[in-house]
Amino acid sequence: MQSMPQAMRHSWFFRNGRPWIFLALLLGGCQTQPSLAKQAPLLEINRIEPGIKLDIRYATRNNFTGRVLYSTARALLLPEPALALARAHGKLKPMGYGLLIYDAYRPWSVTRALWNSASAPDRANGYVANPAEGSKHNRGCAVDVGLYALDTGKEVEMPSAFDDFSVRAHADWTGGSEESRHNRDRLRQAMEAEGFRVLPNEWWHFNFRDCDQQPLLDIPFESVH
Ligand SMILES: [Zn+2]
Hints:
The chain is built from eight helices and seven strands.
């Protein structure tokens, strides 16, 4: 405020900064909000394949924001990726593994909340999606997934934890234990055989085929029956 001319300092706007803040938020919101679809045929994954386990982290505080972002712990996807995921699970079963889902469809408004709570380096590294472009999760065709052992029901070891924003999370990282790398590669093989592609810096994130062409969705979980 010190360098501001006297006339401006005494103007209505500068005596009360709130209108400026409000205007900036309004314009910012207009610029960053892409077009959003309010309807889509989202399917409940564990209704298609009850053997797929859920650990929906954004429905708990056990995520990088430390906040609960989902009202319910549900895993929803568009029909094609949902069926492909069930097939991947079916292929892992004879090897003694099952799929464990951390996240699937994510309403666009949650992507905006994640972006707002992420640090500048995490944004720059691409660990969180810019709401202006939206996340593949908002399109209902991306899934964050790990493995559990069928005999113990426990999550299997991977080279990093879910949402670890470091090099350990890279799909081709050569560190960590040999067993953890085998587990990661087993998951990737099963998923890629069904049309998913791994994100290079997140071993757990898979996009289904033409995911880019699907509309961004902002449907609350409560509206999907
Ligand atoms: Zn993801």
